[in-house]
Amino acid sequence: MSLFRSWRRKRILAKPFPEAWREILRRNLSWYHVLSPAEKGKLERDLSIFIAEKNWEGCAGQVINDEVMVTIAGQAAVLVLGWDDYLFERVKTILVYPASYRTPGGTRTSIEEDELVTVRLGEALHGGPIVLSWRDTLSGTRVARDGQNVVLHEFAHVLDMENGMIDGVPLLPSQHAEEAWSKLIHHELEDLRRQLDLRRQTLLSPYAATNVAEFFAVATESFFEEAPLFKEFKPELYRAFSEFYRQDPVERFDVHPHLHEHHPHLH
Ligand SMILES: [Zn+2]
After folding, report:
1. What is the mean pLDDT of the chain?
2. pLDDT (tens digit, 9 = 90+) per residue, 125-155?
3. C-alpha pair distances (Å), 212 with each of 69, 165, 181, 209
4. Model confidence over 81-117: pLDDT tens digits?
5. pTM (2 decimals)?
6. How far is the CA of 105 from the centre of ligand 1 (A)?
7. Residues facing residue 132 across a β-bridge
8. How confident is the model at residue 232 (pLDDT cuts 50, 70, 90)?
9. Any residues with CB less than 8 A from the CB of 26 and at least 6 apart, and which?
10. CATH topology for 3-259?
């Protein structure tokens, strides 16, 4: 890290964390209350730096206020809770739209509600900004445990791009680990497509079957938001994600045993 960046980060962290921001986290980050005090501290530090270092731009009349920044940064910070010194440095700009938006053409990394009209909830552009719909950001984070979270999804794409390719394989410690990861992801993708062909109910949304990149992003949403189900039905994938993210999100669910509801058999 450059000396200037580390000096600037120290200055950012020298300020006390605003209580108003903590209030926003309590309100909008549904899993905030189950984090340990150490995790909350890490999340608050990362969030402060993230907010200060990114350019925030509202599009189509969207206002950028503390709630928008804290809610988005807080979720990005959950993704990196297990790591030190990584804050999506390649992402310089976050563009926020009020709701889902339309763009001409399509890219592989967009979530499309309908392929024909290309309505987007969010987007991660290679080497460019993250684009998010505020409405979908809010519903994704307030309604936890449904496996849908557009912020986790788009920032997972950023992790995927860290090795220079959008291939469902994030940066891993060795080539061997990357090969094992790629094999596992492809295997799981094929399995998902097979289950969908058989019209079975699957844990991951059908959108994950688009390609390996979408599989990784959708699986990341599910890993954090539906950890107990994910671990139960995809144990090998859970182990791989748990090692990669250096987090065991199932633990965040154990304090709420009532969340282990009855569920149909998933594939
Ligand atoms: Zn995507």
Report:
1. 88
2. 777 899 999 999 998 888 767 788 999 999 9
3. 29, 11, 11, 8
4. 999 989 999 999 999 999 876 665 544 445 544 444 4
5. 0.89
6. 15
7. 96, 122
8. very high
9. 32, 33
10. Collagenase (Catalytic Domain) (3.40.390)
Distance CA 34, CA 249 (A): 10
- Residue 156 Cα to ligand 1 middle (Å): 8
The CA 258 to ligand 1 mean position distance, Å, reads 31
Burial of 79 (0-12, 13-18, 19+ CB in 10 A): buried
Cα 214 to averaged position of ligand 1 atoms, centre (Å):
5
CA of 151 to the centre of ligand 1 (A): 10
The rounded Å distance from CA 109 to ligand 1 centre is 4
Per-domain boundaries in the chain: 3-259
pLDDT tens digit string along 17-33? Answer: 999 999 999 999 988 98
